[in-house]
Design a protein that fits this description.
Blueprint: H1 3-98, H2 109-121, E1 135-148, E2 154-157, E3 167-171, E4 174-181, H3 184-189, E5 197-206, E6 211-213, E7 216-222, E8 226-232, E9 237-243, E10 261-266, E11 269-274, E12 282-288, E13 295-304, E14 308-314, E15 317-322, E16 331-337, E17 350-351, E18 359-365, E19 370-375, E20 378-388
Antiparallel strand pairs: 1-20, 2-3, 3-4, 4-5, 6-7, 7-8, 8-9, 10-11, 11-12, 12-13, 14-15, 15-16, 16-17, 18-19, 19-20
């Protein structure tokens, strides 16, 4: 190959290389242009999104500010409503005190004749008081809600005669275990039962009519006839038991169908509140010997079972608490004094503050002059204002 042919070949190769280089540069330029367009598009979208996000943030901040103002307004309205409700409750208490509701005693000629005949038969069987207690309830001085514990129905109490600070809790209306807290502080602070001691009773209990009195637990056992069991809390043994001498017993309170016998204590000692099929309209009362569980004396009271939810005894006078089938304001509307010192027309009509539902148990503690109540699962203490019976 001559020199001119080599030169021609080099020229052809150079021309082809320049053409490829030109095409490559054009391709790169197109890709860069496309990339610049995409970057510009992303920048525009990012700017738009930033603007929308800023607008949304400002909108949310405005809504939060409005919600905060509305919350403050609602809180103020709620506080104002609570003040008005408290004022209304005080006014209702005043009106109810000034205009007491008529006692729910049905006028029954047959019942009146029966009561007169019974009174004639017992005219010489006067109750001999063991103490000089002559007080009666004038009003509820204060109320303290301790906590909410356990079932909607139950019982909590202290020893009504001893100096122990232990709290005894019967959760529910049928069980065989009693919870014991060492003091009120432990019962108030701890919601779980793991902080409480447990006593498993030899026989299951029923209802909410039990009582702790002078180191002994008096509880109701249902197995055939209803029995009152006396259980020593120190050595965990059954000391005595007694079958209640009443045929065909029925629930003592119309609104608490799970309680057949209510064991109560006051300054005079131990009592049993019950009802029988023989006189199913009214509540009966009996004085018990705490040592032997013997019945010392019995009374047919004029207090009706209908709409009764609980009862307790203060200074020898039975106080029956009434409500309505749809829970309303509980009230002491019937008082029966075994000594005859306090007549029904002389007793004060006492209203309990309306809070939750209705009381499944109310235990009077004569040592502290207050009531331990169980209201729809809430444990409540009522402190009472007392007066002399002759001053009412």
């Amino acid at each position: 190959m001559g020199p001119w042919r080599s030169l021609l070949l080099l020229q052809l190769l150079a021309t082809a290389l320049r053409a490829q280089q030109q095409q490559f540069m054009e391709y790169v330029e197109r890709r860069l242009t496309l990339l610049e367009e995409r970057i510009s598009q992303w920048h525009d979208q990012s700017s738009r999104y930033s603007t929308e996000l800023r607008d949304f943030k400002n909108q949310v901040l405005g809504m939060l500010e409005t919600a905060e103002k509305e919350r403050e307004a609602m809180r103020s309205e709620a506080e104002s409503a609570a003040v008005r409700v408290d004022r209304l409750e005080r006014e209702v208490d005043y009106l109810e005190t000034q205009n007491p509701a008529p006692p729910c005693v049905e006028v029954d000629e047959t019942l009146m004749e029966k009561q007169v005949a019974t009174a004639k038969q017992r005219k010489n069987e006067k109750y001999t008081k063991l103490t000089d207690c002559s007080d009666t309830i004038a009003s509820i001085r204060a109320m303290k809600i301790l906590k909410r514990f356990g079932s909607t129905s139950g019982l909590w109490t202290k020893d009504a005669a001893g100096n122990s600070e232990k709290i005894y809790v019967f959760d529910g209306t049928a069980n065989d275990t009693v919870y014991i807290f060492p003091r009120m502080r432990e019962f108030t602070l701890f919601s779980a039962t793991r902080k409480a001691a447990r006593i498993k009773l030899p026989y299951p209990w029923v209802g909410t009519g039990h009582l702790v009195y002078d180191g002994h637990l008096y509880y109701i056992r249902q197995q055939g006839p209803f029995q009152v069991i006396k259980f020593n809390l120190a050595n965990k043994t059954v000391v005595d038991s007694s079958v209640f001498p009443a045929e065909e017993q029925i629930p003592v309170f119309g609104l608490s169908p799970f309680t057949y016998i209510e064991v109560a204590a006051d300054e005079e000692g131990l009592w049993a509140i019950y009802a029988t099929k023989e006189d199913e309209k009214n509540i009966c009362l009996a004085k018990l010997d705490p040592t032997s569980l013997d019945i010392e004396q019995m009374w047919d009271t004029p207090c009706p079972r209908e709409n009764a939810e609980a009862a307790f005894v203060v200074c020898g006078a039975l106080h029956v608490v009434y409500n309505t089938p749809l829970p309303s304001r509980s009230r002491v509307q019937c008082v029966f004094d075994v000594s005859g010192t306090l007549g029904p027309e002389d007793a004060s009509l006492v209203y309990f503050p309306k809070r939750y539902g209705s009381h499944s148990s109310m235990k009077y503690n004569p040592r502290e002059r207050q009531i331990y109540a169980w209201d729809d699962g809430y444990q409540i203490i009522y402190r009472m204002e007392m007066k002399k019976k002759l001053e009412v």
